[in-house]
Amino acid sequence: MAVLVMIWLCFFVVHLLVGGKGAKGSIDIKPCGVLYWVITLAQIPIAVAFTACIVHQKRKPSRTQNGLVIVDETQAVPVKSRLNALPAHVFPVAALLTGVMSGLFGIGGGLLLNPVFYHIGVPPKTSSATVMFMVLFSSSMSTVQFIILGVSGIESALAYAVVCFVASVVGLVVIEGAIRRSGRVSLIVFAVATIMALSAAVIACSGAARVWAQYASGQDMGFKLPC
Predict the structure, then answer these.
(1) pTM
(2) How much is the mean pLDDT over the chain?
(3) Which residue in 4, 5, 61, 113 has the fewest CB atoms around it within 10 Å?
């Protein structure tokens, strides 16, 4: 948790300095100037440094006892589990590719990370909880940044946040009750698969409609400049 808090603070400071869409940074710097790019590109060595630190920790030999890896005082898992057998670099590479694809296509990271987690053997409950924590991690950073920088529309965003929170609690209670009654954790997988299918259909339809509107109005449909 200490490492995660440090990561949150580092990227929060970077984005607070340079600002974002519809928000001027906390310091007066020229957009696309030298200082702007120095601060923006500082995210790369920060990400590499934290990734290297975490990978180094993962590669440390674990305490073993009778062929088992001791996770804590009450839990043990097989040494040759599918998850532990994966190379340490798989996780940062998957995260990097997910971030690039999310940025290019404008989709949420959870839409891509959930199938990856399932494929490498992460239990459904753990996978869903991890993805939701990642969403909270990134969205809370943007929310605090926008509040400090005075971006308009905070009230509407807070209203949406309350609705989403209530819906999440209701969904959690319903799915937990269904799992207890049926004894099938796979219900989480089916729920995630259904949401992913609906999201893919909605994104495809809305994207096609937006592209057609741009084409019909003669707008530029290429990549925009970074500034």
Answers:
(1) 0.62
(2) 76
(3) 61
